Prior knowledge:
- It comes from Parasynechococcus marenigrum (strain WH8102).
- The chain has helices at residues 2-12, 20-26, 31-45, 49-56, 59-75, 78-89, 94-101, 105-125, 132-135.
- By secondary structure, the chain is mainly alpha-helical.
- Helix 2 (20-26) packs across helix 3 and helix 6 crosses helix 8 (105-125).
Amino acid sequence: MKGQAMQQEQMQRGGPALSDARLADALNITIQRWQEACSSQQAQRMVPISAIHEQATNPVNDDLEDRWLDRGLALLKPQQRQLLQRHFIEGDSVRRIASATGVPQHQLRKSIRNAIELLQHWAEQDGLLPLRSCRQATASP
């Protein structure tokens, strides 16, 4: 969908996620039409509950998710990837990272949030998560 591509570009630039209202406006459609399109796309990705259970108990699925995450992390900017690694994998606090790098804590938190939102967006596009913009309408900025 064109709106999803716009959302991805926005996230890659490090900007906040676009609201449903902004996406609909940019596409020259109503918010209702945008949400209907999202619902339709999400419905196409639905699978039976039994299939989800089979995926959860399938060790091959874990490998696929690990490989997806590795590819997703590789697509992030090096600074974003290093920040996520230091904070989530190595367990460094934001305060410690800020002290070591000289970057203010609020800026590090924003960078972490933006990197996670970008990974979530990519996971939505790949069908690993339901689309956020389709789950709820957001207020226009």
